[in-house]
């Protein structure tokens, strides 16, 4: 491939070999679609499989291959939570925090993981072995609480199973899930925590709401109150629903809110 | 128990239906071959319409009608199977994909033929890596057996199938977001109209159908549309897999005739409540649906009855709550989910979900104030109807229903605040 592209990235010999070796696969992926851009997700998946994360070089090469601006590739990759833009641990632990798991003890399981690993949501252990994330519903609610280890499901989590799993990975006896390849040093915090509402502290894994800008912060409350006081919004919604003949048909308790 | 003969779930847990030969020994691919050799696409469409089949992905739109919207203008058409199952509480497509991949595959092929498409896609949720591998193996088998490719059965009909993996985004289950993701873009819903039937994938006429919807097609062709139409209520006919989870003894997928009562589903299928516990509420259609209560349990579980009661059956996910449930925490889990999964295009959804989620966080942390209850009552409602897609509208139903019913639980948090955590 051409190295003449405008790029501020330093060449990575390893990476050049990797990318060159994948060219045939990429061509086959592109050929599956009427429009080459459709191959972006499959190509990124393939890079992540090989590198353990989506490196800046991978995005650069994808952009050149599909003739897309690099910014478009970065924007697209950043949309999807399963694409890691920073190196992660060898074992990505993703524990479900949604309703059916929560009803079956997920809060305790998550607290145990945080305590045993010494890291919080979206963080990596110092030894680079584990990254930990609390995720939304994994569609295995009948086997709650559940999680994925490098996308392999682990069902019916119990405190004992959590300890056995971590011990097994640490001492090399847990072999159900192959480790992610490690081509760069994982960072302790591997992901920019965009949603500060779900970071650390407290049994529920949430931020301090009284922090500046939080909803408990006086200025935040005032802002919300202004929105709530803007009765015009509620009235417009209602008018529209009435016009479309939908008012009051879908949601119980709606009438109680029609005081606006 | 009102036992029915399993249709979509037949053989699951007993046979290795991942194997082509096993699936064939159960009558697999006979209908696809018959359709190609003996039926026109119009005949397949007609049978689908007459069966009364309604979409199993959440909206319940009549499948035949959806197909009939495609314009007859000579442009290529696409059939897209939506296997981006991520509605909290739903786990039926996950099972169908892993346990009966050939049934899903035959359904996609029949659907594609029914709309006259020569290129079909299946969009598989990124988390379902195992399901993807299983389906890919099934596709390889089917291709080798001549069910996918060109000039199928010597009829001259070409049909290609491409597997496309998602990468973690609930919103890609929304059909236009899915199409954007399939085109290599951010999974953001499109402004509608135009609907996918006119301008879908690559701006071409496109149908997006749920896994279970398409998997029903081989059975409808085998047994005839009348067989399907006579099961269950007139306007919600057919068989449906209901995913039951939460505080029941035997959570799992249960295939029933639509119209079975929720009481039967909970007590007989799922084994009833955990020992010594009392039923408090049920979410009949996943996280987007409003809770129903004891007085609703004898209602027929079908699209129209549950809608009339003020909720929806959605994708068929019942989450059952007993008397140990903290509904403030439950509401927080649901609202936080939608806040997290908002694609961010529409302000009411992007900002509103986060505001409500953080309000609930604060209440749970013991820092709530009584006026927060009023905020919760009004904020969700003000997000509804203002967004490009239904995600923003999904914040209100569950929150409003449990707030209405269990307001005392919410009040208890704000009137007797726990000591603030340092």
Describe this structure as you would to a colleague.
The complex is a heterodimer of chains A (260) and B (422). Chain A is α+β, with helices and mostly antiparallel strands and 260 residues long. Chain A contains ten helices and five strands. Chain A folds into three domains: 3-79, no CATH class; 91-171, Glutaredoxin, CATH 3.40.30.10; 204-254, no CATH class. The model of chain A is unreliable at 1-8, 192-242 and 244-260 (pLDDT under 50). Chain B is an alpha/beta fold and 422 residues long. Chain B has three domains: 20-229, Rossmann fold, CATH 3.40.50; 239-322, Ubiquitin-like (UB roll), CATH 3.10.20; 327-421, NADH-ubiquinone oxidoreductase 51kDa subunit, iron-sulphur binding domain (de novo design (two linked rop proteins), Up-down Bundle), CATH 1.20.1440. Helix content of chain B is 42%, strand content 13%. Chain B contains 18 helices and nine strands. Chain B has helices at 20-25, 30-38, 41-51, 63-68, 92-99, 101-114, 129-144, 175-182, 211-215, 217-223, 225-229, 262-269, 303-308, 327-341, 347-364, 370-383, 395-405, 407-415, and strands at 78-83, 119-124, 149-152, 157-165, 206-210, 239-246, 252-257, 279-283, 317-322. In chain B, the strands form two sheets. A five-stranded mixed beta sheet of chain B has the order 3-4-2-1-5. In chain B, helix 3 crosses helix 6 (101-114). Chain B is globular. The model of chain B has no long low-confidence stretch (mean pLDDT 95).
As for the number of domains of chain A, it is 3
> Are there runs of chain B of 5+ residues with pLDDT below 50, and where?
none
Number of strands of chain B: 9
CATH architecture of the largest domain in chain B: 3-Layer(aba) Sandwich
Note the main sheet of chain A: 5 strands, mixed
Strand content of chain A: 5-15%
Q: What is the chains' assembly state?
A: heterodimer
- CATH class identity of the largest domain in chain A: Alpha Beta
What strand line-up does the widest sheet of chain B have?
3-4-2-1-5
| Residues in helix, % of chain A | 40-55%
Radius of gyration of chain B: 22 Å
Instruction: Give the termini separation of chain B.
Output: 53 Å
Main interface by residue count: A-B, 70 and 91 residues
Q: And the CATH topology of the largest domain in chain B?
A: Rossmann fold
Largest sheet of chain B: 5 strands, mixed
Average of pLDDT of chain B: 95
User: What is the N-to-C order of secondary-structure elements of chain A (H for helix, E for strand)?
Assistant: HHHHHEHHEEEEHHH
CATH architecture of the largest domain in chain A: 3-Layer(aba) Sandwich
- Order of secondary-structure elements of chain B: HHHHEHHEHEEHEHHHEEHEHEHHHHH
């Amino acid at each position: 491939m051409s190295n003449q592209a405008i790029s501020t990235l330093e060449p990575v010999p390893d990476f050049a070999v990797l990318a060159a070796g994948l060219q045939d696969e990429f061509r086959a992926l592109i050929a599956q679609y009427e429009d080459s851009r459709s191959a972006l997700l499959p190509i990124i998946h393939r890079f992540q499989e090989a590198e353990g994360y989506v490196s800046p070089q991978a995005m650069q090469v994808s952009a050149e291959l599909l003739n897309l601006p690099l910014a478009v590739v970065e924007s697209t990759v950043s949309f999807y939570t399963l694409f890691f833009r920073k190196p992660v641990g060898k074992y990505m632990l993703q524990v479900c925090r949604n309703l059916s798991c929560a009803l079956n003890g997920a809060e305790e399981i998550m607290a145990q993981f945080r305590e045993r690993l010494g890291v919080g949501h979206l963080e990596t252990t110092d030894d680079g072995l584990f990254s930990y994330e609390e995720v939304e519903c994994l569609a295995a609610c009948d086997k709650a609480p559940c999680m994925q280890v490098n996308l392999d499901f682990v069902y019916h989590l119990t405190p004992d199973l959590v300890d056995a799993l971590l011990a097994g990975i640490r001492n090399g006896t847990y072999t159900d899930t192959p480790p992610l390849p490690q081509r760069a040093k994982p960072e302790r915090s591997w992901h920019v925590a965009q949603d500060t509402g779900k970071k650390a502290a407290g049994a529920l894994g949430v931020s301090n709401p009284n922090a500046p800008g939080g909803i408990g912060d006086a200025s935040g409350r005032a802002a919300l109150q202004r929105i709530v006081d803007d009765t015009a919004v509620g009235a417009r919604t209602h008018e529209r629903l009435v016009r479309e003949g939908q008012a009051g048909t879908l949601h119980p308790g709606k009438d109680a809110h029609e005081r606006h | 128990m009102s036992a029915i003969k399993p249709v979509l779930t037949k053989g699951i847990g007993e046979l290795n239906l991942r194997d082509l030969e096993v699936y064939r020994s159960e009558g697999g691919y006979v209908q696809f071959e018959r359709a190609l050799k003996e039926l026109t696409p119009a005949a397949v469409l007609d049978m689908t319409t007459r069966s009364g089949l309604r979409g199993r992905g959440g909206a319940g739109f009549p499948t035949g009608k959806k197909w009939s919207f495609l314009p007859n203008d000579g442009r290529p058409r696409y059939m897209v199977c939506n296997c981006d199952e991520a509605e909290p509480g739903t786990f039926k497509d996950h099972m169908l994909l892993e346990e009966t991949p050939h049934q899903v595959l035959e359904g996609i092929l029949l659907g594609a033929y029914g709309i006259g498409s020569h290129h079909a896609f299946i969009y598989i949720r990124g988390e379902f890596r195992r399901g993807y591998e299983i389906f890919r193996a099934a596709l390889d088998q089917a291709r080798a057996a001549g069910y996918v490719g060109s000039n199928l059965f010597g009829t001259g009909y070409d049909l290609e199938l491409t597997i496309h993996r998602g990468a973690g985004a609930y919103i890609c289950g929304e059909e236009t977001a899915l199409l954007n993701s399939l085109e290599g873009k951010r999974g953001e819903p499109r402004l509608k109209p135009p609907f996918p039937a006119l301008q879908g994938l690559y701006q071409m006429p496109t149908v997006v159908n749920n896994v279970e919807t398409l998997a029903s097609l081989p059975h409808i062709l085998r047994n005839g549309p009348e067989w399907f139409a006579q099961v269950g209520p007139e306007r919600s006919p057919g068989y449906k897999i209901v995913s039951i989870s939460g505080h029941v003894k035997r959570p799992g997928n249960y295939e029933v005739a639509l119209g079975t009562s929720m009481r039967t589903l909970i007590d007989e299928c799922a084994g009833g409540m955990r020992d010594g516990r009392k039923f408090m509420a049920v979410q009949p259609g996943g996280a987007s649906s409003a809770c129903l209560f004891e007085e609703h349990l004898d209602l027929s579980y079908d699209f129209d009855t549950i809608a009339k009661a003020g909720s929806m059956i959605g994708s068929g996910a019942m989450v059952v709550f007993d008397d140990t449930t903290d509904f403030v925490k439950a509401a927080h889990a649901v609202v936080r989910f939608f806040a997290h999964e908002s694609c961010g295009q529409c302000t009411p959804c992007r900002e509103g979900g986060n505001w409500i989620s953080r309000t609930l966080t604060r209440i749970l942390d013991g820092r709530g104030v009584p006026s927060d209850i009023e905020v919760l009552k009004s904020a969700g409602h003000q997000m509804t109807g203002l967004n490009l897609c239904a995600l923003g509208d999904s914040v209100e139903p569950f929150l409003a229903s449990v707030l209405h019913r269990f307001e005392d639980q919410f009040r208890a948090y704000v009137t007797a605040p726990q000591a603030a955590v340092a």
